[in-house]
Amino acid sequence: MESLPEQATAYLAPIGFDHILKQTLGKNIVTQLGQLFICDTYIPGIYWAQNIWMNPKIILFQSISDAAKKLRAIQRDWANYSFQLHRRSHLITDLLPKLKRFPINFPEKNYLRLPLGSWTLLSQNTLLAATNCSSTLPNGAAHFVENKFDPPSRAYLKLWEACTIINRYPKAGDICLDLGSSPGGWSWALSNLGAQVVSVDRSPLALSIQTNPLVKFVQGSAFALEPNQFKHLDWIVSDLICYPTKSFDLLRKWLLAFPKANFIWTIKFQGETDHQTTNMFASIPGSHIQHLYHNKHELTWMKPSDL
Ligand SMILES: C[S@@+](CC[C@H](N)C(=O)[O-])C[C@H]1O[C@@H](n2cnc3c(N)ncnc32)[C@H](O)[C@@H]1O
């Protein structure tokens, strides 16, 4: 690649989901570099990207130290995406400032405000670099200092990631509704921050969560619950397994009743990805959708209370 279109944008696919990203980018793709799709323009409404590089530039360099020098001259912090020439990429990375802020020690506030550029080697003496990226995590990967003992499932990492992205954190005294909560990873994460949780699932919670004094378990269908059973809710979260259209109807019911709550909502797909319903979620004002690093074949819809 010797030159780039003026409005070039690069989209990094989440591992295992490059086929969905490729399908949504369509004919705008100019070239593919591993999991990175270079497009001739910026395309709005792309949710299946782990990171989006705005206006990447091609930089020529003479040597490993020259590459590091040229990157440092632009800005301090860089993350490498390596799809080839791995050893050379490592050597350049070693000459750049270390990214001491990773992994993330949840809850660290204002975490994603610090700029982080992205770069990749195109050849021995050329690299592609972008200072402005949609994610300020290295390649969009939200690595946390994990708790391997207390949560009953790893699903809590999705909730941590969503809170970090919207920069909103449940606090002591907040009242949360957790729909589709078993075995209790999200309820654990919410109660661990001191919030009170009404936790709803057809299946039981892990005993450690069910006996947590901050968690009230309601066994049954999330669809049977009505908003008028609650006076106030600060957070409404759902990791429920159901069809996207059903999930959208359920969200609308809760959003209508509690428009000022914070929402984190997993949209799960079975078989085909339902882009049409995704766009319906996306059209809700003040909301944001993305494929989280900890998402599988699902997207996360987020709406902080004050947007
Ligand atoms: C991915 S799991 C949730 C994991 C959970 N967030 C955690 O952190 O441990 C999805 C849950 O949705 C529940 N579910 C599916 N349909 C439901 C319904 N109609 N009402 C309540 N729960 C339902 C399933 O029983 C399952 O426990």
Summarize the structure.
This protein has helices spanning 18-25, 64-74, 86-94, 156-166, 185-192, 207-210, 244-257, 275-282; strands at 9-12, 29-33, 36-39, 51-54, 57-60, 78-80, 117-123, 126-130, 132-133, 175-179, 196-201, 215-219, 235-238, 262-268, 288-290, 298-303. The protein is of the alpha/beta class.
Can you walk through the features of this model?
This protein is of the alpha/beta class and 307 residues long. It folds into two domains: 9-140; 156-303, 3-Layer(aba) Sandwich (Rossmann fold). The chain is 24% helix and 24% strand. It has eight helices and 16 strands. It has helices spanning 18-25, 64-74, 86-94, 156-166, 185-192, 207-210, 244-257, 275-282; strands at 9-12, 29-33, 36-39, 51-54, 57-60, 78-80, 117-123, 126-130, 132-133, 175-179, 196-201, 215-219, 235-238, 262-268, 288-290, 298-303. It has a seven-stranded mixed sheet with strand order 12-11-10-13-14-16-15, sandwiched between helices. Strand 10, helix 5 (185-192) and strand 11 (196-201) form a beta-alpha-beta unit. It is elongated. The two termini are 41 Å apart. 40% of the residues are buried. The mean pLDDT is 96. S-adenosylmethionine (SAM) is lined by residues 153, 155-156, 180-186, 200-203, 221-223, 239-242.
CATH superfamily membership of the largest domain, which one?
A: Vaccinia Virus protein VP39
The DSSP helix count reads 8
**Percent of residues in β-strands:** 15-25%
The biggest beta sheet reads:
7 strands, mixed
Into which percent range does the helicity of residues fall?
A: 10-25%
Oligomeric state of the chains in view: single chain
Structural class: alpha/beta
The CATH architecture classification of the largest domain is 3-Layer(aba) Sandwich
> Segments where pLDDT lies below 50 for 5+ residues?
none
State the end-to-end distance.
41 Å
The largest beta-sheet arranges its strands as: 12-11-10-13-14-16-15
Q: What does the average pLDDT come to?
A: 96
What's the CATH class of the largest domain, please?
Answer: Alpha Beta
What string gives the helices and strands in order? Answer: EHEEEEHEHEEEHEHEHEEHEHEE
Number of domains: 2
Ligands (ions, cofactors included): S-adenosylmethionine
CATH topology value of the largest domain: Rossmann fold
